[in-house]
């Protein structure tokens, strides 16, 4: 089983539990649809992003997704004015990780104007 709890108090709360024996969740079209990799990347800031900045970040992410092999099993949203969330389902970890890495670069450049190497934990 996998239990997840992500929280930014007063802004965003996400909880979930995946059970390996739950075939309906793992294989059903409203669940993981047979994919075995579920990835989430979120961008959160202390002050609300302007609507223009959020929309720009979402548009750029949609453009990235359109060029991606996982475009039909990935999506991006802004559930709160301080949060952007990218989710992806993939058959393997590697394509999902490549998408998360590309998304991180887009958000850092678009929202912070920063260019930097990937975190060491992402090194292969």
Structure description:
The protein is an alpha+beta fold and 124 residues long. The protein is built from three helices and five strands. The protein has helices at 23-27, 51-66, 93-112; strands spanning 2-8, 12-18, 37-44, 74-80, 83-90. The strands form two sheets. Strands 3-5-4 form a three-stranded antiparallel sheet, covered by helices on one side. Strand 4 and strand 5 (83-90) form a beta hairpin. Helix 2 packs antiparallel against helix 3. The longest helix is centred in the C-terminal third of the chain and has 20 residues, at 93-112. It is globular and about 45 Å long. It starts with a strand and ends in a 12-residue tail after the last helix.
Biggest sheet: strands side by side, in what order?
Answer: 3-5-4
Number of helices: 3
The biggest sheet, with number of strands, parallel, antiparallel or mixed sense and barrel status, is: 3 strands, antiparallel
Task: Give the strand content.
Answer: 25-35%
Relative helix content: 25-40%
Q: Number of DSSP strands?
A: 5
> What's the SSE pattern?
EEHEHEEH
CA distance, first residue to last residue: 26 Å
Mean pLDDT: 91
**Are there runs of 5+ residues with pLDDT below 50, and where?**
none
How would you describe the shape? Answer: globular
| Structural class by SSE content | alpha+beta
- Provide the gyration radius in Å: 15 Å
């Amino acid at each position: 089983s996998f239990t997840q709890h992500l929280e930014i108090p007063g802004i965003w709360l996400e909880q979930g539990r995946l059970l390996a024996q739950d075939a309906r969740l793992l294989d059903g079209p409203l669940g993981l649809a047979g994919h075995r990799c579920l990835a989430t990347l979120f961008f959160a800031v202390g002050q609300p992003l302007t609507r223009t900045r959020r929309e720009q970040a979402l548009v750029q992410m949609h453009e990235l997704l359109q060029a991606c092999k996982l475009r039909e099993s990935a999506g991006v949203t802004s559930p709160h004015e301080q949060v952007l969330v990218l989710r992806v389902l993939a058959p393997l970890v590697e394509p999902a990780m490549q998408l998360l890495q590309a998304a991180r670069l887009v958000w850092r450049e678009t929202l912070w104007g920063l260019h930097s190497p990937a975190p060491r934990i992402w090194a292969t």
